[in-house]
Amino acid sequence: MLHKLKNFVTTGLLLAFFVYLIFGAVIFHALESPAEEKMRIEFWEFKRNLSRRWQNMLTQEELQGMLDLLFKAQSWGLHPDSTEEKSSRKRWGMDGALGFSGALLTTIGYGHFAPVTNAGKAFCVAYATLGIPLTALTVSAIAERMRNFSRFLAKKISEKRPQWNRQTVERSCNAGRVVVGMVVFFVIPTWMVHIVEDWTYGDSFYFVFITLSSVGFGDYVTGERIDREYSVNLVFYRVFILLWTGFGMAFLGMVFTMMSKALK
């Protein structure tokens, strides 16, 4: 009977997952497709105007080559206002390489830039093959320490207040752990990112959640503002973001585990 019930629950969860997946696709399509279409229309109009204006000076192939070079330069972090005298920060400077390594090991994969050389791609595969399991074990160990601390705290409280219900104490400790974790890993980082990156609070919180959930779309990445002079050391900033990401992912994983157990 219990086996059949588990099969039923698993089937129900699979159906719920696919329904939720389709629901998300429909909503995202409805919200984002009009903006994308508007941008495409503006781009084609810009290209037509540019072609008409320069048709006596540039061939269609030369114009296309110029646009391709501009897009490629932007993907490498070069701002349109860059000059040889005042260039944008290099994507693969030490701070950028550190940020890429952190995104790779935590499987966030922002996707805003990637290795282009064959040697870089080969090393990326080898580095990730060893590093991702190591990171997963580390994050899992951190999450376990967090759970153990909560149990330890509940045990100590129960010993000092034996008249209190043990189950209530454990639930209170779990709730307190979640509240403190939300402040430490969500509220404070949102405020810090807002200050350093000059993003809105909404965009900052969006970045924090997308990063800690290891989704990492790449639309918001710390330390990558090519139009901004940072007032902090970018290497130390990257290290802080990496540490926050590791501990924050452990916390969020712990919360998701608690939610999963509560639903069983």
UniProtKB/TrEMBL annotation:
<feature type="transmembrane region" description="Helical">
    <location>
        <begin position="12"/>
        <end position="31"/>
    </location>
</feature>
<feature type="domain" description="Potassium channel">
    <location>
        <begin position="90"/>
        <end position="147"/>
    </location>
</feature>
<feature type="domain" description="Potassium channel">
    <location>
        <begin position="182"/>
        <end position="263"/>
    </location>
</feature>
<keyword id="KW-0407">Ion channel</keyword>
<keyword id="KW-0406">Ion transport</keyword>
<keyword id="KW-0631">Potassium channel</keyword>
<protein>
    <recommendedName>
        <fullName>Potassium channel domain-containing protein</fullName>
    </recommendedName>
</protein>
<keyword id="KW-0472">Membrane</keyword>
<feature type="transmembrane region" description="Helical">
    <location>
        <begin position="125"/>
        <end position="143"/>
    </location>
</feature>
<feature type="transmembrane region" description="Helical">
    <location>
        <begin position="205"/>
        <end position="223"/>
    </location>
</feature>
<keyword id="KW-0633">Potassium transport</keyword>
<keyword id="KW-0630">Potassium</keyword>
<dbReference type="InterPro" id="IPR003092">
    <property type="entry name" value="2pore_dom_K_chnl_TASK"/>
</dbReference>
<dbReference type="Pfam" id="PF07885">
    <property type="entry name" value="Ion_trans_2"/>
</dbReference>
<dbReference type="GO" id="GO:0016020">
    <property type="term" value="C:membrane"/>
</dbReference>
<keyword id="KW-0812">Transmembrane</keyword>
<dbReference type="InterPro" id="IPR013099">
    <property type="entry name" value="K_chnl_dom"/>
</dbReference>
<keyword id="KW-0813">Transport</keyword>
<feature type="transmembrane region" description="Helical">
    <location>
        <begin position="175"/>
        <end position="193"/>
    </location>
</feature>
<keyword id="KW-1133">Transmembrane helix</keyword>
<comment type="similarity">
    <text>Belongs to the two pore domain potassium channel (TC 1.A.1.8) family.</text>
</comment>
<feature type="transmembrane region" description="Helical">
    <location>
        <begin position="235"/>
        <end position="259"/>
    </location>
</feature>
<dbReference type="InterPro" id="IPR003280">
    <property type="entry name" value="2pore_dom_K_chnl"/>
</dbReference>
<dbReference type="GO" id="GO:0005267">
    <property type="term" value="F:potassium channel activity"/>
</dbReference>
<feature type="transmembrane region" description="Helical">
    <location>
        <begin position="96"/>
        <end position="113"/>
    </location>
</feature>
